[in-house]
Design a protein that fits this description.
Elements lengths: L30 H18 L8 H10 L11 H10 L5 H6 L12 H15 L4 H6 L2 H8 L4 H9 L2 H11 L15 H4 L19 E3 L3 H5 L3 H12 L4 E3 L8 H6 L2 H20 L3 E3 L3 H14 L4 H7 L2 E2 L1 H10 L12 E6 L2 H4 L6 H6 L5 E6 L16 H18 L3 E4 L2 H11 L8 H9 L2
Parallel strand pairs: 1-2, 1-3, 3-4, 5-6, 5-7
Helix pairs in contact: 1-5, 2-3, 3-5, 12-22, 14-16, 15-16, 20-21
Organism: Thioalbus denitrificans
Keywords: 4Fe-4S, Iron, Iron-sulfur, Metal-binding, Repeat
Protein name: Fe-S oxidoreductase
Length: 447
């Protein structure tokens, strides 16, 4: 393999840097230019191979090279490049934990954002399945499936094998994939008219007033997450108000490559969230991918947008927020119930935020509680696991996590990403239920 640029093959000792995503540049969507960059990056990856055990993108690439006539990238057919792209679900772990050639290294590798560019090119070409358009339209699907009576029919149908087999043939949704339930009694309905009677003082970078960005998943699929968050925060004297009329953060559409839809979500959400920040509210969301969208992806897409930066600096993961309060002596540590052994899968989009293991830190304060962190991908990865062509790979990725939960003989297990928790539950297939850390913390408080 020949190095794409001159200079020694060594990693940078400086902290990784992300460059803004130049998605409005016409060259961003130029397929010839894209393939030139794919060739450059894939050639470097072939010579390194440190990421072989992350997702299926890298084994797909490396196997194709090893099985080619030349055993080099030039022997790989171009359609394989798109297979590599399709296996990437933008977890960012290669950039954050493996690659020695990320910026500021002269080779300037950002594999996830190159995959995002390729997905955007595919989407603009119209090379996208109807299934993927539907699965990523979370607000629309959630609103329709959450209509009273309809939600019951949808949930019942999703548990019926004949219906799932039809869904597999018609849309390509795997019959064994665990699909989320839909609730007509959504989070916004449950919290309608809610007002906090508690008050809190600022502590560190927290102002002690929280606007809850409920997320589309928390709104329609697991509304109890928002209720648990409100209960825990108000038990700590932190007033919580629902962030009001917001939409999906845009992460599902980002993973599809539909950047125009991401832009529409941004144009709707950011003014509303920025206004809350101006009014003195911090923002908290119970799903790591949603927090990451506002903390990283939107700021990289809109590096000069002051409102985006304002929201970026004011949004928190729930346990990040509680840990900051604890650091300043503002956390209620009077727990009534031990939790025993807790297996906690550290979701990829939580690790990317570089906030440390704050969930483990807080849960470990509960007496007679042992928390084992599992820093491996769950394999759920947005819509990846529900797709018929990828479900087997998703279960393979999840297997080490499932084995760790079993070996630990956990009393409770779950993830900050509720979808990852459900995927682990599917892998265990022993009748147990995953539990979100917020739910566990509420149990520990006995509230």
């Amino acid at each position: 393999m020949s190095a794409p640029t001159g200079g020694p093959r060594e990693g940078s000792l400086e902290a990784p840097q992300r460059h803004p995503l130049d998605w409005n540049n016409p060259d961003f969507y130029n397929e010839e230019s894209l393939f030139k960059e794919l060739e450059r990056v894939f050639d470097i990856c072939h010579g390194c191979r440190r990421c072989f055990n992350l997702c299926q993108s890298f084994p797909t690439l490396f196997d194709a090279i090893d099985e080619s006539d030349t055993m080099e990238l030039d022997g790989v057919a171009k359609p394989v490049y798109w297979q590599v792209v399709d296996h990437c679900y933008l977890c960012d772990m290669c950039f954050m934990t493996k690659c020695p050639y990320v910026p500021p290294h002269e080779w300037n590798l950002d594999f996830p954002h190159l995959m995002l560019r390729a997905k955007a090119v595919k989407y603009r070409k119209g090379d996208v399945k109807m299934r993927d358009r539907i699965l990523t339209s979370t607000d629309t699907v959630g609103s329709l499936a959450g209509i009273p009576v309809v939600s019951g029919v949808v949930n019942a149908a999703n548990r019926m094998k004949p219906f799932r087999q039809v869904l597999d043939k018609v849309l390509g949704v795997h019959p064994d994939a665990l699909l989320p339930e839909y609730h007509s009694n959504s989070l916004s309905k449950r919290l309608k008219g809610h007002s906090s009677s508690v008050s809190a003082e600022p502590a560190g970078t927290t102002r002690g007033r929280v606007a809850l960005f409920g997320t589309c998943y928390g709104e329609h699929n697991e509304p109890h997450l928002g209720e648990d968050l409100v209960a825990v925060f108000e038990h700590n004297g932190i007033p919580v108000s629902l962030a009001g009329d917001t939409r999906c953060c845009g992460m599902p559409k980002l993973e599809l490559g539909d950047l125009e839809a991401v832009n529409k979500a941004k144009e709707y959400n950011i003014p509303r969230l920025a206004r809350l920040v101006d009014e003195g509210w911090d923002i908290v969301a119970p799903v790591p991918s949603c927090v990451l969208m506002f903390k990283q992806e939107l700021p990289l897409m809109y590096p000069d947008d002051e409102a985006v930066a304002k929201v970026r600096d004011a949004i928190f993961d729930p346990f990040e927020y509680l840990a900051l309060r604890h650091k300043h002596g503002k956390l209620n540590t009077e727990f009534r119930n031990p939790l025993g052994k807790v297996a906690w899968q550290v979701s990829c989009h939580l690790r990317v935020q570089n906030i440390g293991q704050r969930t483990r830190e807080i849960l470990s304060l509960v007496p007679d509680t042992q928390v084992q962190a599992i820093e491996r991908c769950s394999g759920h990865d947005g819509t990846y696991t529900v797709k018929s062509e990828f479900h087997a790979d998703a279960m393979k990725i999840c297997k080490p996590v499932v084995n760790r939960v079993r070996q630990f003989e956990a009393d409770h297990y779950g993830s900050d990403c509720p979808m990852a928790g459900r995927h682990i539950q599917s892998g265990l297939a022993d009748g147990t239920q995953s539990e979100h850390p917020l739910t566990l913390l509420r149990q520990a408080y006995g509230i």
